[in-house]
C-alpha cells in the first residue's frame, strides 16, 4: 500500500477569469482545502472574515511578515495579500491537497521557493479569460466595483495575462462546467504521480 503527500494547486488568472469559483468548488466538493489568504483590502459586501480572507490592518499584516508567518506575500491593486504557512504546510504533510488563488507575483515567489516540501507539492495553473471583451463583461457584471476599480482591474488583468507561459498549465476559460471538469481532472491526474507516493 502507498500513501502520498499533498498537492499545492496554485491558481492564478485575472479577476473575472473565474479562478476563485473553480477553487471554491473544489473545496466545497472536499477535493482540496482552500488556503484562505490574508489581505489588507476592505471586505466586499457579503465577504466573511476567515472564510473569504483573513482581513487584517496593514500593521497586523506587517507584524505577521516580520514573524515569518507567510509562504509568500505581494502588493496587488494597492493592497497586501499573502499566504500563511499555517494554511498549507500541515495539510500537504498529511496528504491533503490545498488549492490557493494567488496573483502572478505570489506565484513567482512560491515557484522560486527552496523548501523541498513546497517544490514537490506544487502544481501551477493559469486561468485565462476567453477574450478581453468577455473579461470586461464579467468584471462589470459582478456589480461590486466602481468604474474606476473596473478600469484598474482591466489594466492589471491585461498585464497579468502576459505571464501565462510561466505556469505549467493554462486553462482557457469556457463554460463553468467545462472549466471545472478540466480543473478537477488535472488534480486527479497529479495525484497519480509516482513522486508523490510514499511506501508505508
Ligand atoms: P481580490 O481582491 O479580487 O479578492 O483579489 C485580487 C488578487 O489578489 C487576485 O488576483 C488574487 O489571486 C490575489 N490574491 C489573493 N490572495 C492572495 C495571496 O495570498 N497572495 C497573493 N500573492 N495574491 C493573492
Commentary on this structure:
- The structure is a single chain.
- A five-stranded parallel β-sheet has the order 3-8-2-9-10, with helices on both faces.
- It has a single domain, classed as P-loop containing nucleotide triphosphate hydrolases (Rossmann fold), CATH 3.40.50.300.
- 39% of the residues lie in helices and 22% in strands.
- It has helices at residues 19-28, 58-66, 89-93, 104-111, 116-121, 132-141, 147-161, 176-190, and strands at residues 2-4, 8-12, 33-34, 38-39, 54-55, 70-76, 79-84, 98-101, 122-128, 169-172, 197-199.
- α6 runs antiparallel to α7.
- The longest helix is centred in the C-terminal third of the chain and has 15 residues, at 147-161.
- It has eight helices and eleven strands.
- It is α/β, with parallel strands linked by helices and 200 residues long.
Amino acid at each position: 500500500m502507498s500513501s502520498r503527500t499533498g498537492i499545492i494547486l496554485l491558481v492564478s488568472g485575472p479577476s473575472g477569469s473565474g479562478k476563485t469559483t473553480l477553487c471554491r468548488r473544489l473545496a466545497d466538493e472536499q477535493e482540496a482545502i482552500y488556503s484562505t489568504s490574508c489581505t489588507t483590502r476592505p471586505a466586499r459586501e457579503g465577504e466573511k472574515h476567515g472564510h473569504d480572507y483573513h482581513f487584517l490592518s496593514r500593521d497586523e499584516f506587517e507584524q505577521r511578515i516580520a514573524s515569518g508567518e507567510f509562504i509568500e506575500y505581494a502588493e496587488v491593486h494597492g493592497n497586501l495579500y499573502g499566504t500563511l504557512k499555517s494554511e498549507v504546510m500541515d495539510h500537504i504533510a498529511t496528504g491533503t491537497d490545498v488549492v490557493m488563488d494567488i496573483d502572478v507575483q505570489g506565484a513567482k515567489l512560491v515557484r522560486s521557493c527552496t523548501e523541498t516540501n513546497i517544490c514537490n507539492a506544487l502544481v501551477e495553473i493559469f486561468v485565462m479569460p476567453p477574450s478581453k471583451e468577455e473579461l470586461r463583461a464579467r468584471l462589470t457584471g459582478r456589480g461590486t466595483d466602481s468604474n474606476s476599480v473596473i478600469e484598474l482591474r482591466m489594466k492589471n488583468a491585461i498585464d497579468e495575462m502576459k505571464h501565462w507561459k510561466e505556469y505549467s498549465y493554462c486553462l482557457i476559460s469556457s463554460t463553468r462546467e467545462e472549466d471545472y471538469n478540466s480543473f478537477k481532472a488535472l488534480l486527479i491526474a497529479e495525484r497519480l504521480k509516482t513522486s508523490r507516493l510514499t511506501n508505508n
